[in-house]
Design goal:
mainly alpha
Length: 143
C-alpha cells in the first residue's frame, strides 16, 4: 500500500503541474479536474480494492495536487516535482492519520513537503559552496 500511495502522490504532483504549465489550466482547475476523475473512479469501485485503501489513494492524490500547484518559478525541473510528490507521499503515510477530521490537513502536509524539499535543496547548495571555498582556501594556504 505504501508504494502505491507514494507513486500516486508523484503522479498527482506531476499531473497538476503539467496541466497548469503546459495546457494553461488555472491551478485550481489543474488540481480539481484530475482529483475529481480519480475520486469518481474509486467511488464507482472500478478497481476491486478495499474501501479504506481506495479512500487513502484518493486523499493522497488530492493532497499531492497541492504540491503541483507550487509556482513555476520555484519548481524548475521535473526532479523538483518528483521529489516533492515523493515527500508528500512519505509525510502522508507518516503523519496523515493525525490530521483526520482536521480541516486543511492535506494542504498542511503539502506545504510541509514543499518547504522541506526547498530547505534540503538550499542546504545541499550551501554545503557545496562551503566545500568549494574550503578547497580554494586550502590551495592558497599551501602556496
Amino acid at each position: 500500500m505504501e508504494v502505491i500511495i507514494i507513486i500516486t502522490s508523484i503522479i498527482a504532483t506531476l499531473t497538476t503541474y503539467y496541466l497548469s504549465k503546459v495546457f494553461g489550466f488555472s491551478k485550481v482547475l489543474a488540481s480539481a479536474l484530475p482529483s475529481f476523475i480519480v475520486a469518481l473512479v474509486f467511488h464507482l469501485q472500478l478497481f476491486a480494492i478495499e474501501t479504506d485503501y481506495a479512500n487513502n489513494i484518493t486523499l493522497a492524490f488530492f493532497g499531492a495536487t497541492f504540491c503541483g500547484m507550487t509556482g513555476h518559478r520555484l519548481m524548475k525541473t521535473w526532479y523538483d516535482l518528483i521529489l516533492t510528490g515523493f515527500l508528500f507521499g512519505i509525510l502522508f503515510l507518516l503523519i496523515g492519520k493525525y490530521f483526520k477530521g482536521f480541516g486543511g490537513g492535506l494542504g498542511v502536509i503539502a506545504c510541509i513537503s514543499v518547504i522541506t524539499y526547498f530547505v534540503i535543496l538550499k542546504t545541499i547548495v550551501v554545503i557545496h559552496q562551503l566545500r568549494k571555498r574550503e578547497k580554494v582556501f586550502s590551495r592558497n594556504d599551501s602556496v
